[in-house]
């Protein structure tokens, strides 16, 4: 195992580093908001320490405004509540009906969903009209996301990526949060001739397809089938629905593992295990023991793969097959070096994975669960200190050494460096804050942070 897991770490023991992180977070949120007038797109990555846009899709806007809501929840500073609420109303409406992306769980659950949860937890005053508004937004988002559907033989299918109906992305496992919340709120998607489409069924079918085609279990599917390997993308022949091959957009190759995709798999499976375990008895025909077992198997396989591939402090190379790794020796046995001249690290993958390890550990329990939990805490400790935590006031980013799209050359390379380093991403910063809030709530003996809890005190409109 590459990661040196510290079995002594606790959430309470990390409370001071988490609080320090939120102290550093506050001026960065304000700086970005001041420099980013509404209507000018979403900040994506930093260049020379300042956030810039990168046109592909506006998948990071919810992370920008959701960060303000996490900041409020962690610190009680209502200025960030009002900022996050105002920007959600001003800028996030178009994302609710965005039919061109697979990113609803990123954009809308991080904003409308966070506000709903905070109201139901009593962190902000209860207001039934506002709650109805937030829940309507989440219903719309989940239905629109579910409508982006490719049917496969055998009554299964998937939410297709922005590449088109032939494309299944690993990332979308975490976007299933939008379907989960809409179903949780009693919503359905209406299709042709008013056909009622069950959102939970689409969630389950997408998860099954992703586990079958994008995650490997060491069972000989191809010559590079290693347990826990993840394909960023799976491609299908739309004429007959047959699977054709793995692919990637942001990784090095279809037969290596892009580590942020690996992190999305760990967190997506673990978070959905939490949600599916809460499903009511009458829906158990969809949420079967076989489904839960397969999803746990996928979560554990990808988690174990991450632990084998990361450096000793938990930070991974951006892709396990990146060509420069052959020059790096046994890098997995050493502390990560983001300034190495061969291949970039990706701290954002670690921030996503750390939360997944914590959730998976709590779900699994016992000795295996304790191991995953301690792995998550060990990653958190690394991320909450330099060189990964940005502790100077000159940088708009919070989590340093994040990578976006290495193949396209979208990541800035600083003078004197040979690979990208020293920069931040909006998803990396957001997931560090979300990870910090998870730890802070545990340290304060508060209920666990879950996107679908608590339940609404008012019944859905008939």
Molecular structure report:
By secondary structure, the protein is mostly helical. The protein has one domain (12-443): Glycosyltransferase (Alpha/alpha barrel), CATH 1.50.10.10. The protein has helices spanning 15-35, 61-75, 78-91, 93-96, 104-107, 109-120, 128-147, 172-184, 199-213, 259-276, 289-309, 347-364, 366-383, 426-443; strands at residues 45-47, 50-52, 149-152, 156-159, 167-169, 189-190, 196-197, 233-237, 242-247. α2 (61-75) packs antiparallel against α3 and α7 (128-147) crosses α8. The longest helix has 21 residues, at 15-35. The radius of gyration is 21 Å and the shape is globular. The protein starts with 14 loop residues before the first helix and ends in a 19-residue tail after the last helix. The mean pLDDT is 95.
């Amino acid at each position: 195992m590459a990661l040196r897991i510290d079995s002594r770490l606790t959430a309470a023991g990390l409370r001071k580093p988490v609080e320090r992180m939120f102290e550093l977070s506050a001026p960065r949120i304000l700086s970005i908001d001041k420099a980013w007038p509404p209507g000018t797109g979403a900040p994506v990555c930093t260049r020379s320490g300042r956030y810039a846009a990168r046109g592909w899709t506006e998948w990071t806007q919810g992370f920008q405004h959701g960060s303000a809501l996490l900041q409020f929840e962690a610190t009680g500073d209502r200025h960030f509540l009002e900022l996050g609420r105002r920007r959600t109303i001003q800028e996030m409406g178009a994302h609710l009906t965005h039919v061109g992306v697979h990113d609803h769980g990123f954009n809308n659950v991080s904003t409308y969903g966070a506000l709903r949860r905070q109201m139901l937890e009593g962190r902000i005053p209860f207001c039934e009209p506002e709650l109805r508004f937030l829940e309507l937004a989440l219903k719309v988002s989940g239905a629109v996301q579910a409508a982006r559907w490719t049917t496969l033989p055998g009554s299964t299918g998937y939410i297709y990526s922005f590449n088109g109906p032939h494309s299944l992305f690993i990332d979308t496992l975490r976007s299933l949060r939008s379907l989960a919340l809409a179903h949780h709120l009693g919503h359905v998607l209406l299709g042709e001739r008013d056909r009622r489409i069950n959102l939970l069924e689409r969630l389950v079918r997408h998860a099954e397809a992703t586990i079958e085609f994008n995650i490997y279990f060491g069972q000989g599917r191809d010559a590079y089938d290693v347990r826990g390997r993840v394909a960023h993308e799976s491609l299908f022949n739309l004429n007959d629905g047959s699977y054709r091959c793995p692919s990637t957009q942001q990784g090095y190759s279809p037969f290596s593992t892009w580590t942020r995709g690996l992190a999305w798999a760990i967190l997506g499976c673990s978070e959905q295990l939490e949600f599916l375990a809460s499903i009511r008895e009458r829906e158990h025909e969809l949420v079967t023991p076989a489904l839960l077992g397969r999803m746990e198997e996928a979560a554990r396989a990808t988690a174990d793969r991450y632990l084998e591939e990361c450096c000793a402090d938990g930070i991974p190379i951006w892709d396990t097959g990146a060509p420069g790794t052959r020059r790096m020796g046994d890098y997995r046995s050493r502390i990560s070096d983001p300034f190495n001249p061969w291949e970039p690290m990706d701290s954002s993958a670690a921030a996503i994975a750390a939360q997944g390890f914590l959730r998976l550990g709590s779900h699994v329990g016992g000795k295996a669960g304790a191991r995953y939990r301690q792995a998550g805490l060990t990653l958190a400790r690394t991320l909450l200190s330099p060189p990964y935590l940005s502790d100077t006031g000159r940088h708009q980013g919070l989590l340093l050494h994040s990578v976006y799209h290495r193949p396209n050359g979208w990541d800035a390379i600083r003078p004197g460096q040979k690979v990208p380093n020293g920069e931040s991403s909006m998803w990396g910063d957001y997931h560090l804050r979300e990870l910090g809030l998870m730890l802070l709530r545990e340290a304060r003996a508060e209920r666990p942070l879950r996107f679908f809890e608590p339940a609404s005190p008012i019944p859905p409109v008939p």
